Amino acid sequence: MASDNGRRKDPGWKYNYLANVEDKNAVTCLFCNKVTKGGIHRAKQHQVGNFKNSTKCLKCPDHVREELAQYMAEKKSDKENYDKMPDFDDIDNMIEIEDVDDDEGKMKQTNINDKLDKEKRAQACQYIGRLFYLAGIPFNVARLDEFKWAIEAIGQYGPNMKPPNYHELRVPILKKEVAYTNELLSNHKQDWKKYGCSIMSDGWTSRTNKTLINFLVNCPSGTMFVKSIDASSFMKTGEKTFELLDTFVEQIGEANVVQVVSDNGSNYVLAGKLLEAKRPNLYWTPCAAHCIDLILE
Ligand SMILES: [Zn+2]
Whole-angstrom Cα distance, residue 85 to residue 112? Predict the structure, then answer.
């Protein structure tokens, strides 16, 4: 293609680019971002300077001026064609760019890359936004480190990454994540031994009217959710609650448990007493937040 050959031969294209490939006349100067509307020829005149109908580039390095001026002198045979070109009003499109780097090549590269990066990022963000809106993903997801890690990992992979499919998400990836979570749990378990821990138990009723009891363990390195029990099928008596708590203490290790925290329901009060009777080294503590809640009610 003629234009491509021309682009490769004409040194002007090293220092200018087309912001819009459809419009070969509007050429952008790499050094000052000025857009001239007379093709590569007018752009070179802008950079070399001292031509009629074009303002001189204030940021073009001297060696580029010389290179372009020399090339234009060599192509003097084309001069007639140049002069026949209609006058275009240069659009003042001066955009502030950072101070010219000593290394012009680097600066030129950064300049192009900045522009491309902006466009590419805008496009990627648009797709991500669309996914969020279509799938009803909460905006808070954007605040998760995990979201940033995922994006970073995709970037590290490079182009053409095959996304995880339905099956991969449901089975192998999930299995790995369970193993990863167990690994985290094992770190916590060491801390339970070292520092002791508190068991926290909280019952709640789901929207589908199920009674669920969550069991969590707190230690200096944080709180860990361990399990959830569906307690809909049995009466929430003190004895039954005691049984559940007692089994959980056994699971965590009696020697590690310093206290058991639960809400102030009568079943928990009784369960706490039974637990303290059976295991004299631990304390049952009513949940302060729940007590305050009741006082305010
Ligand atoms: Zn310029």
Answer: 28
Same domain for 72 and 9: yes
The pLDDT, as a whole number, for residue 54 is 80
Gap from CA of 15 to ligand 1 centroid (Å): 9
Which residues have C-beta within 8 Å of that of residue 259, sequence separation ≥ 6? Answer: 198, 199, 282, 283, 284, 285
* C-alpha 53 – ligand 1 centre gap (Å): 14
C-alpha span between 196 and 198 (Å, rounded): 7
Q: For residue 55, is it within any domain?
A: yes
How many angstroms is it from 84 CA to the middle of ligand 1? Answer: 23
CA distances, 288 to each of 83, 96, 167, 244 (Å): 88, 59, 44, 21
Query: C-alpha angle with apex 144: 155 to 121, nearest 5 degrees?
Result: 35
Please name the residues in contact with 139: beta carbons below 8 A apart, sequence gap of 6 or more: 132
Choose one of 52, 69, 97: the last residue of a domain: 97
Q: Token digits for 275?
A: 């637990």
From the CA of 77, how far away is ligand 1's center (Å)?
25
125-174 pLDDT tens trace: 999 999 999 999 999 999 999 999 999 999 889 889 999 999 999 999 99
Centre of ligand 1 from the C-alpha of residue 36, in Å: 9
Ligand 1 center to residue 202 CA distance, Å? Answer: 68
What is the per-residue pLDDT across 250-275, written as a single tens digit (0 to 9) for each?
A: 999 999 999 999 888 888 889 899 99
Same domain? For 277 and 218 the reply is yes
